[in-house]
Automatic annotation (TrEMBL):
Protein's UniProt keywords contain Signal: yes
Protein name in UniProt: Alginate export domain-containing protein
InterPro entries in the record: Alginate_export_dom, Porin_dom_sf
Boundaries of every Alginate export domain copy: 24-154
Pfam families linked: Alginate_exp
Lineage: Bacteria, Pseudomonadati, Pseudomonadota, Gammaproteobacteria, Lysobacterales
Length: 398
């Protein structure tokens, strides 16, 4: 089980009015998934059939004070995969180990435009490139943290988070203790201004890793997004730039650039995107984003969750859309993407990748998903194909 919740948080939650006197909501969801991985670096393929169940209790103690506790359990009917727990090391990795733990436990105070949350919580900043919950994995990433949010106007949002600990997706069953959780002394600041389809933001993430000093970084950047809409404003774009440097007691010295350029065009049938993402490297060290939702970026085959020392250039094309809009259950959601990967230093071709997915809703609470990733290696890693079949069910939204 994950490390204990800070005693002060638990005591505060126990001191709340009892459930008979305060509104109490029960929340739950379940996700059944089969993942198949064929990686040429291994003789044998990986097969994983896992079920994740979450259940939570939400107390609304007063109009301003809320508490939430959520448990999470993952079981495997087919476990022919390397989950990082010491078994099946002769097969490719699938990051969904069997586990049971407290996923979230927090207190939240809200008064008008100000909100404060303390305890184990889910965090997601912007597109989760730097800080996210890794929601794709069965066991998500959560943080022991104190977060503050202030909206001085309807168009402006300011966020600050102090990070004490990151609970990783590998769970407490991981053989490597650094894959279970990381002790941090981190400060995340994010400011965003929104006006119509425009969103402009800036951020500073100062993360001291108390377990691995060489992972301590300071990242400062800015992001602009223009939303596209078919018919009214078909053109959209996302632009982002950041600089990452060594921080705190990091024994290394580096300064790496990050940028993203992604124009988009919305039509009646699909939204088309062309992107160029740059993660700088110098041949000895590269920009890293260990607290991000990494599966969302640089291809679903997850070959670049750790940026190669020579850096990474990801140039991609993607299309997303809906089919059968008249269906009572909702539209079919599809995505197709192509990536070409190169090194920042030297320009070596790493490989290329195709991704495709199809989501099928069966109603407000049921959704099926089929998804595939096919990576063809040039000079980095080995050819890899992944296939997912998934079914999700969630309690009614409150």
């Amino acid at each position: 089980m994950r490390s204990a919740i800070p005693p002060a948080i638990l005591l505060s939650m126990l001191s709340l009015p009892c459930a008979a006197q305060a509104p109490l909501d029960v929340e739950w969801n379940a996700r059944l998934r089969h993942e198949s991985v064929s990686d040429d670096a291994f003789v044998r393929d990986a097969q994983a059939a896992t079920l994740r169940v979450r259940a939570g209790l939400r107390w609304t103690a007063t109009p301003h004070l809320t508490a939430f506790v959520e448990g999470e359990a993952v079981g495997a009917a087919i476990d022919d995969y390397n989950a990082g727990t010491g078994a099946h090391n002769d097969r490719p990795a699938v990051g969904d180990p069997e586990s049971a733990e407290i996923n979230q436990a927090w207190l939240r105070w809200r008064n008008g435009t100000v909100e404060a949350t303390a305890g184990r919580q889910r965090l997601a900043f912007d597109n989760q490139r730097w800080l996210g919950n890794v929601g794709w994995r069965q066991n998500e990433q959560t943080f022991d943290a104190v977060s503050l949010q202030w909206q001085p106007s309807t168009s402006t949002t300011l966020r600050y988070v102090w990070l004490d600990r990151a609970h990783r997706v590998a769970s407490d069953r991981a053989v490597d203790p650094l894959a279970r959780e990381r002790r941090l002394d981190g400060h995340a600041l994010n400011a965003a201004w929104t006006r119509g389809p425009h969103r402009l933001g800036g951020y500073a993430y100062l993360i001291e890793d108390e377990d691995v000093a060489a992972a301590s970084t300071r990242t400062v950047g800015a992001r602009y997004a223009l939303a596209s809409a078919a018919g009214t404003r078909p053109f959209g774009a996302t632009l982002e730039w950041a600089r990452q440097r060594d921080h705190a007691a990091n024994p290394l010295r580096f300064s790496h650039a990050y940028w993203l350029v992604e124009p988009a065009w919305a039509t009646r049938y699909a939204t088309l995107r062309a992107g160029w993402e740059h993660l700088g490297g110098n041949g000895r060290h590269a920009l890293q984003t260990p607290l991000a939702t990494l599966h969302t970026f640089n291809g679903w085959a997850d070959k670049f969750t750790l940026t190669p020392a020579a850096g990474l250039e990801d140039r991609y094309l993607a299309a997303t859309g809906n089919l059968a809009r008249a269906r009572a259950q909702g539209p079919l959601e599809w995505t197709v993407a192509w990536h070409a990967y190169r090194a920042d230093v030297g320009g070596a071709r790493y490989g290329r990748e195709w991704n495709a997915s199809l989501g099928l809703p069966f109603g407000p609470r049921w959704r099926a998903l089929a998804k595939v990733a096919d990576y063809r290696a040039a000079t980095y890693a080995r050819d890899t194909t992944k296939l997912w079949l998934q079914l999700e069910w969630a309690s009614p939204a409150k």
